[in-house]
Amino acid sequence: MPQATYEDANLVLRLYELRREEKLRRARDWFAREFSAGSADELAEKYPTGSEENALYRMVISYWDMAASFLVHGIIHEELFFETCGEGLMVWEKVHPYISELRTRRKNPLMLRNLEKAATRHIAWLSQHAPGAYEAFLSLRAAQGP
Known about the structure:
73% of the residues lie in helices and 0% in strands. The chain contains nine helices and no strands. The protein has helices at residues 6-20, 22-33, 40-46, 52-72, 78-84, 87-95, 99-105, 113-129, 133-144. α2 (22-33) packs across α4 and α4 crosses α8. The chain is globular and about 45 Å long. The relative contact order is 0.13.
């Protein structure tokens, strides 16, 4: 892997600045603490279109899919991204149980594709560089609930 550049560092800092924006920070906090859906039906029931929670949900998943697109398309240094943007993996873990169902319903196989690709690569990177870290992350998530 090539050396990270100042441009990579600046992009990571810009992504961090965006995460600090008040509305997105509130959405991320809600998502991490309260969001839980195991199916597309449960998602629609608990967070219906037009609700504040649906807006928070969409804000978080679209932010992380956008950030993941930088990785997937080679715009940002992979290792630097994984070392500084671990929250995206948590987001993927919360949405992956029902994403296939949503993709089918919306006839959009591209929905959150970047987030999925980035998470898959992040898991492989963790397995190589920090064996057991992903499993520990999953255990901690399970113990914390939603």
